[in-house]
Predict the 3D structure of the following.
Amino acid sequence: LKNSMDMFRLSEKDYPAIIIQPICNSGAWGNTEITNKVKGLIDYYINNDMVDENKISLTGFSLGGSGAWLMGKSYPRLFSCIVPVSPYDSSTATVYPDCPVWVMYSTADGSAGSALGIEKLLRDARKKVKLDKYEISHPAMMQKIFRSETTEVMVNWMINRSRETNSSFQF
């Protein structure tokens, strides 16, 4: 785990948030040991009154996007919103929390088919979802979403979500 403020290129003064970024080996998100460890860390912050438990957001890129779906499935009432970015595997998106979901993917990488399936799944389930498509490569997605003006839009949207007010699902 590492502090991700540098990755997001955000100021801790401007964005009073704790960002937890698990770095996992390939395939690790299929292992419940990883989800349990991440949940344990979140619980630590909650139990020590370090975070507002109604404002815990979740995002991830590529394999981490798959992890976002898995964490949402494993702990459906924990998160105020989920933002999977170019999720590598979306098989766990069949069950997800009753919270806003913003999926971002590129039509130029392997996640596109997965995200299109997600769009149909979420709309059929009558859930609110925002789906953003980009026509850029997988590495360019990382730059676009996590190191540009898109970062501020995404982070502000996530910070302004709360489980207490999610009935509006505003995007």
Observations:
- The radius of gyration is 15 Å.
